[in-house]
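ok so I'm stuck.
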Amino acid sequence: MIKVQLKDGSVIEVEKGISILELAKKISEGLARNMTCAIVNGKVEDLRYVLNEDASVEICTFENSLEGKKAYWHTTSHIMAQAIKRLFPKVKLTIGPSIDHGFYYDFDTEKAFSDEDKEKIEQEMKKIIKENLPIERYTLSKEEAIKFMKEKDELYKQELIEELPQGEEISFYRQGEFTDLCAGPHLASTGAVKAIKLLNSSSSYWRGDETKQTLQRIYGISFPKTSQLEEYIQMIEEAKKRDHRKLGKELDLFFFDETAPGMAYWMPKGFTMMNVLIDLWRKEHKKRGYQEFSGPQLNSSSLWKTSGHWDHYKEDMFVLTDADGNEQALKPMNCPNSIKIYTSKLRSYKELPLRFNDIDVIHRNEKSGQLNGLFRVRMFRQDDSHNFVMESQIKDEIKDILEIAKKLYNIFGLDFELTLSTRPDDYMGELSLWDKAEADLKDVLDEICGKDSYQINEGDGAFYGPKIDIKMKDCLGREWQMGTVQVDFQLPLRFNLSYIDLNGEKKTPIMIHRALFGSFERFIGIITEHFAGAFPTWLAPVQVRLLPIADSHKEYAKKVEEELDAAGIRTEIDDREEKIGYKIREAQLQKIPYMLILGDKEVEANQVGVRSRKDGDMGAMDMKKFIEKIKEEIKNFGQEK
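replied:
not stuck anymore, here's the structure
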């Protein structure tokens, strides 16, 4: 017999050699029917996985975890590949992973898949599901696996196998006549998949390398219930309307151009909004003792070699040679520059915690196929801070950081969840320091979130320290990885950082990396979709548009503009010779929070006709009253007191 600890902490005894699926049946027949995979001792395993020793086991379903969803979607990707091989036997298979929202599979085919092709593929997938084919897992030696794929003329699979270490056991999954090289996990049968939909297709490159074969990628999604699929499709349609790339052009915020792939051109209105966000960020940090600095965009390779980025991150950096033949790199992150600020003079324990924040532009050499609007770019402004603390200050510092995050996210009405990632197998540093840091982070999360209200990813921390990841949900329920708080024991050692302690001795500080928005570019992309471009008044690049009815009202419009400008309200005048109804519609399409109608009555009474984007016609109002109203709204971020 062996002992199995379940997620709720309970322990059960089962026979040695029991599979995860059999274990689930002992717990509950319903759980067994719904399970898709399991997490065994922190590692995702197939439901066929056999337990031969004591272990901790978390049974995953589609509903209770992302790992459970991914196993479901991974199986669906194999169903799609099987359907394509039935319909188009000459197509070559490459890879078909699950992703955070569905799955895709890349194929080498002579022509792109048409909409008609995709409809046929989807119908064939439904047939395969109806056939309810058992999914079997088996293994082969490397030599046998290469021979198998040669016989099937699957050259891409053969290449993948050839790169695996000699003697490695290579797993395959078979369903009916279809077999694929795969590490898993997968469901028990094709019939376990219920509602499916192929979403879109695009070109891709083998292994993401632009110099290699162009492939055709098909994305899809699947769910256990038809109602879930219908809800998802509805969400996708709504997301299309909210696409930040589309709205960025329509609202004159930003655009992308082939002259600078992955680097946004910020229009005046978009850059105004960027600066409003930066001002908010600066204000909140300044009152908490943060000191803003700016460092070089270009650093010698020697700095990146000391930090370790040269060995682990060079391929993602823009590297060049200066006039003297020395290697330089555009910075992909700010931490080494923060360290240089720290080492610019001798530090005392009395100065700690030292909080250096910056919003310098950074560059990352992302592959073109990975670029995605403002969500994945090559140039962006990270809302960075690097905080240098003593060991005894870790807990309070993390607590303060999370309080800033909570305050900032609440302003936008964004819910967020926290995940603690703990010590990995390849950790560096003293075990006692890791234990202390993890205990401190748990204490802070217990206090801020409440016990059991955050997730723990065992073994998923960075090698240099544990971390907290911040994930947000927008109004469509989509989850975004945003901020991160990372405790770093290693960079201070690599750079020989020190401070003089109470006893006059040199000690090494601990470094906390943290970003809350993640990057201002990405955050603007997210909130553009969250608000569908209808930004709250405090953030809107234009808060008020003045609409004079006739030429005779333009002089009064100028006077009103001056008053609003003096009050710090962002204003513009639409003085085109167009009908007032047309001007109102244009302002509404531009999602301006307030429109002030200016005609004879308003001029005579020294008033403005107020029209709200949200509430429609609000009637005539004295200028003083309107200014008080909008300033109060801006002050409170549009929220009730």
